[in-house]
Amino acid sequence: MPIDHKAAYDEQNIFAKILRGEIPNKTVLETDHSLAFHDINPLAPIHVLVIPKGRYVSMEDFSANASDAEIADLVRTIGKVAAETGADAQGYRILANTGKRAGQEVPHLHVHVFGGQPLGPMLSR
Ligand code: 5GP
């Protein structure tokens, strides 16, 4: 079910559990402020999720309330993931679904990194 991106942070969401080590993940890289791991249901040969370690529901929450250090770290981590997975060799796409209309399913900000194949148009009409 898509989530309300303006709701309060839910400590029981699946990515909070991953960050607490309660659920395993296939880590690509980890920094002081961010974690990158493979999506459990990949939609492309490369499909990695990059999340802040802080408690942010959505991009809206993160962009308004995260520190400059957290924001810089997330962006740099995305770049490193693209480089280290090889996604940047032929081009890649980043995507952050925000709220119900965009189909956000997990109420902890996550940026998808897709690559490894031609990715087609941005949206289908
Ligand atoms: P959204 O639709 O919210 O933008 O994306 C949520 C993503 O989280 C989906 O691509 C889904 O496959 C992924 N996902 C959901 N549960 C888990 C999990 O337990 N582990 C991992 N690695 N990915 C998950």
Round the Cα radius of gyration to an integer and report it.
14 Å
The third-level CATH topology of the domain at 31-115 is HIT family, subunit A
Series of H and E elements: HEEEHHEE
Bound small molecules, by name, code or SMILES, are: guanosine-5'-monophosphate
User: At CATH's second level, what is the architecture of the domain at 31-115?
Assistant: 2-Layer Sandwich
Shape type: globular
With strands numbered from the N-terminus, the spatial order across the biggest sheet is 1-2-3-5-4
| C-alpha termini separation | 22 Å
Q: Unreliable runs, pLDDT <50, ≥5 residues? A: none
Class from helix and strand fractions: alpha+beta
CATH-assigned homologous superfamily of the domain at 31-115:
HIT-like
Description:
The chain is 25% helix and 19% strand. The chain is of the alpha+beta class. The protein has a five-stranded antiparallel beta sheet with strand order 1-2-3-5-4, covered by helices on one side. The two termini are 22 Å apart. The structure holds guanosine-5'-monophosphate. Guanosine-5'-monophosphate (5GP) binds next to strand 2. The site of guanosine-5'-monophosphate (5GP) has 13 residues, from strand 2.
Attribute tags:
single chain; 125 residues; alpha+beta; HIT family, subunit A; five-stranded antiparallel sheet; binds guanosine-5'-monophosphate
